[in-house]
Amino acid sequence: MFINRINRGQLITGLALSWACIFAFISCQKNEAGTEIPQDKTYTFQRPDNFPPPTYTFENNPVTEEGFKLGRKLFHDPILSRDGSVSCNNCHIQAVAFADAQQHPLSIGVDNRIGKRNAPPLTNLAFMKEFFWDGGVTHLDFTSVNAIEADFELDESLANVVRKLNGKPEYPPLFKEAFGIDSITSPYLLQALSQFMVLMVSSNSKYDKYVRGEAGGQLTARELEGRQIFQLKCGSCHSGELFSDFSYRNNGINSDFTNDLGRALITEQESDNGKFRVPSLRNVARTSPYMHNAKFWTLKEVLDHYDNGVKDSPTLDPLLKNNSKPGIELTEEEKEKIIDFLQTLSDFEFIADSRFFQQD
Amino acid sequence: MKKLKNIGWALFAFTTLTLMSCSKDDDNDSNNDNNKKRGTLAVRFDNVVGSEDMQLDSAGHNHYHYTNSNGQTFGLSLFGYYVSKIRLTGPDGAVFEDEMNVSPNPDEVKGYYQVLESETSSQIISLQNIPTGTYDNISFIIGVEEDGVQEGAAGGVLDPANGAWFWNWNAGYIGIAMEGNAPDSPQEFVDWGGGFVTHANTFAIHVGGWKDLPADSNGVQNFVNNIRTIDLDFTSPLKVEEGLNPRLHLKVDALEWMKASNLDFATTYSVHSPGAGKAFADQMNRIFSVDHVHQ
Question: What is the ipTM metric for this complex?
Fold first, then answer.
């Protein structure tokens, strides 16, 4: 009865689909020699086994090779800036885990305008709920709007970027390939940039290999000791596999916040004055200088700050008020061991990953 | 090989069933009986300033057509708002919920409307596919809620490169905005570069802020959510069914908004944060009313 209702076209389609399914089924299986047929996952987002679930809305913007490559081209193209002088990679350099170069402690935009804060590394963004030092942006797609339009960054309007892209012959075909659209609009520009950024997953440090029990993951006794001290002294804020609880805290860098209110710029609450997002520590040994205002050049200086440089103020984090004086007591030996451990968070595969290289 | 053949037939049957179930759904959608049960409603948003029709002048213009409750003269250069999540209900249980969707593709953005005084066509929202019935209440949201923002980059009326009102630094959409000229505003002239200026003696009230997070452990509620639901009863019930052309005429009174929020241009002329916008959000329900209906 079912068969009677199928017309010839459906029958042929049905058969074709059946065979397609069979081939798909077979291709997932081992071949006759018993070896796995590798699938090309070069441009597929994969959650590392030791990572939390991603937060990015992949269902709205699945990563494709075309989309990723378009995002990569845009990331490296100064067309996104007002005068064609600055691109994303000016302040987000792969060699330092997509943080800013050391010679730019504060970001430098068009007309050499100096920003207020140190450009954060673009790493593991697919796992984050909020972005920037103050967490004012709550979706990765919208981070690019901020960077493009801020007058001390690319100082260009999103509308004008879209106009320029539509007018540059190489771009419309690339957007067509990636998204099937005939005319470029801003959401696709933002999605392409996000596709490039969500694949910036740094998960192959020595530490990761240790946690996952993989080859190359042997931590030395000192590194293991450093890890223990780190967990005890730093782990309540720099927690989890991304080494941040992504909360906003005042860690005593300043006691006067008139220059940068931090989180309070977003929440408009005095109780958030001087609070900034707890940064992830992945690749931290490569992302100097440190803190929102690039105050410290070395990890040693950072630990010295926690040991004896914390400035008290009404919004200072309660966890820094547990001792007789504000801060976290650390011996010199403890600091050295913590730094040894932090070195194991450097992911040299990530910073050498050729997928992110500028191609054209 | 025989086994493979069986799998083939199983898949064939499965595929066939899938195909058939798809076409069956299509049949239902084009079912004539079903279409008869659906109608339309045109909702018109008529922006006014008290008893006067709203007219806009360019920013920096010195035509002050209106006077607020503080006796200050002013003119308007921009007025508009996002309407979303429209819902109709009736005395007999009829319910219509406007379809909502966020997408980079403008054709797939559903249920979000940017009503602008400067764009006459934006002032009429044509609701489609409403179940036949009698309706006597409309509710909608002014602004774009979390579920709209958190889908990420969006097109159409939500495209920031195409006129969407988007806050970059505190990402989200402005729900309602009013700008104009007022001699009492101490706003100074600012040249922002790139041809973008703020004129002297102007005001800008931008009400945004959608974050609705629980208070922290110290009881501090860190975000101001300025999204408001407007809920209005019709002046008389409207019948919706195929072939009818019912219309609902809403009035949106900018002067009433200023009065209710006690806007004094001398002190309040630049509102661009959720906290500053709260006073205006809190009075939003005062400015929308049902003027009349056409059956």
Answer: 0.85
